Amino acid sequence: MIEPVARLEAIRDDALSLADRLQRDMEAVAEARESANVDDEHDPEGSTIAYERSQLDAIRRSALERAGDASAALDRIGDGTFGRCERCGARIGGARLEARPTARLCIDCAR
Ligand SMILES: [Zn+2]
């Protein structure tokens, strides 16, 4: 079976660098807010900034999650459990792994 190490490494590295960039963006937003001395609760611009920040954070979290999933899949390649459903132990279909190399569950368990 094909072990998509390079692909998973690319997914992980892309996600990590995205998370990194978002972290810096969030810091920039926080700094801009500080220097503007905006009151989040009462200033309409403040709530826009807070919203923007929470959006960035949500994207950052999902990027970190993706990086974690890719790392976990790489670990499974390392210990030989890659391609096995974590719940029922069945083989995960090749097409599913092709589309989603980070899949932990077979298509039946994922439903
Ligand atoms: Zn399963």
UniProtKB/TrEMBL annotation:
Zinc finger intervals, dksA C4-type: 85-109
UniProt keyword Zinc-finger present: yes
Short name of any one Pfam family annotated for the protein: zf-dskA_traR
UniProt region (Disordered), positions on chain: 30-49
Span of domain Zinc finger DksA/TraR C4-type: 80-111
Highest taxon, organism lineage: Bacteria
One Gene Ontology term of the molecular function aspect: zinc ion binding
Keyword terms of this UniProt record: Metal-binding, Zinc, Zinc-finger
Name of the molecule in the record: DnaK suppressor protein
